[in-house]
Amino acid sequence: MDTLAVIKILVVDDNPTDRLVLETILRKQGHTVVSADNGLDALTVFQQQQPDLILLDALMPGMDGFEVAERIKSQVGEDFIPIIFLTSLQDAGSLARCLDAGGDDFISKPYNSVILQAKINAFSRMRTMNRTLLTNRDQISLHNRTLIREQEIAKRVFDKVAHAGCLDASNIKHSLSAVSVFNGDVALAGVNALGNLMVFLGDFTGHGLNAALGAMPLAQTFYSMLEKGFSHKDILVEINKKLNEVLPVGVFCCGLLAEINFHERTVKVWNGGLPDGIIYKPESGELVALTSQHLPLGVLAAAEFNGRAELYDVRVGDKLYLWSDGILEAENSQGKQFGEQRLYEVFKANTIPDNLFAEVNWAVNQFIGATEHVDDISVMEITQVTPENFKGSQPPVLEQEASGPNNWTMSYVLNPETLRAFNPLPLMLNFIMQVPMLRVFSGQIYIVLTELFNNARFQVITAI
User: Fold this and answer.
1) Same-domain status, 383 and 440
2) DSSP collapsed to 3 states, 197-232
3) Are 38 and 61 in contact (CB under 8 A)?
């Protein structure tokens, strides 16, 4: 006998003879049998005994089988308790009523023991599969809740490492719309020693946690080297080196690093694999494309990497626009992509430059509609302002009592051989900036050190 069919069965029948016959057949087949002779008792026995299957007479005085089936089905919820109606009814309408009331099958009197056993075996397997399905679902739900908690913890760590920098400056607008908890796009901004604004927008392959993992070493390298006074090119070289070392083959970061000089009114741009950014000139309506000239970060080894950047002249009021490919590849319900042409049309239709950022985001969202986007969508806008109107995050001016040593000297000697091959500025600037009252003068100190270094190096080279 199939062991799956050995189960506890509730028999409900108001006819003692029919009930006894059925109980005898079931016990011979190895089942545990409990019984009731009316509808009310059936509900009580069901609550007490918790049977695996119910054989239920359709026609009984008082509470008939149809009402019993409806009440039991409402009580068990997601659990599957098969109900097989016992009936002498033959018309299609009556048999259909058995199923409508919550019954799963019916068997006609007099009972055929072979057919009865086959039905019990079949429903026993169905009950086992239902329980397995519910157990697996609950386990998946538990694992999912655990994963979400772990991701939330990881995201808090990630947000502290890949912090906003000075993205909250009044001349910067940005939006990052992630597909999942983690964003595969990364937006960074900070101020270098010269007071220039450095912004980076990156798009890692894929999205979610796998893509965001690369953003942590990238952001850490960016902010650390920015604070220490490294140049635009040096930062790129080190980020590429770091990503090339830590990322697996096939994972890389399409990125654009821009340095905005508010004094000289220039923008220095390195674009490696990111969609063409734009310098928008509201006065003329001109759109200057910032085309990718390099491979993405993390692809090439350090010796092959090219950090050469392009320099653009800008005016006060000009706007630098950067975006990830998620905005161009955003699809509507018909599967059409938003594309570059629709994006450029938003620029051409703009009449109020200060509203342009909102208009770009509105156009993309309207195009997508209710369709869920499948890639992270990120947009940045940086407006060229006068130096005095740029309110980026600068080192705080510390009080006199926290100014550090007030009587000190430092000696750092570089011989000609070192001057020809080594740039000491980041190291020296990082050391000097540890003196609190000097941090506010970082730009001036950087200029003085740069002039001294360039003059010394020129003398060494010309002396050869």
Assistant:
1) no
2) EEEEEEEECCCCHHHHCCHHHHHHHHHHHHHCCCCH
3) yes
Based on the fold, state whether residues 302 and 321 are members of the same structural domain.
yes
Handedness of CA 411, 413, 419, 423 (dihedral sign): negative
279: number of Cβ within 10 Å: 21
Task: Please tell me whether residues 257 and 170 are part of one structural domain.
Answer: yes
The answer to whether residues 193 and 332 belong to one domain is yes
* Predicted local confidence at residue 59, as pLDDT: 87
Model confidence at 2: pLDDT above 50: no
Residue 294 lies in a domain: yes
Taking the CA of residue 87 as centre, how many other CA atoms within 13 Å lie in the half-sphere pointing to its CB?
Answer: 23
Predicted structure pTM score: 0.64
Return the C-alpha torsion angle 157, 158, 161, 166, nearest 10. Answer: -120
pLDDT 10s digits, 62-74 = 899 899 999 999 9
For the residues 17-37, what does the mean pLDDT come to?
Answer: 92
Radius of gyration, alpha carbons of the chain: 37
Query: 317 lies in a domain?
Result: yes
User: Of 445, 346, 440, which is closest to residue 395 (Cα–Cα)?
Assistant: 440
Q: Is residue 330 part of a domain?
A: yes
pLDDT digits 0-9 by tens, 436-459: 666 667 667 777 887 888 888 778
The residue from 357, 389, 421 where one domain ends is 389
Cα(362)–Cα(340) distance, integer angstroms: 15
Share of the chain above pLDDT 90, in %: 48
Last residue in a domain, options 341, 356, 389: 389
Characterize the bridge pairing of strands 8-12 and 105-108: unpaired
* Structural domain span for residue 234: 165-389
What amino acid occupies position 92? A
pLDDT of residue 394: 47
Report the pLDDT value the prediction gives residue 374, as an integer from 0 to 100. Answer: 60
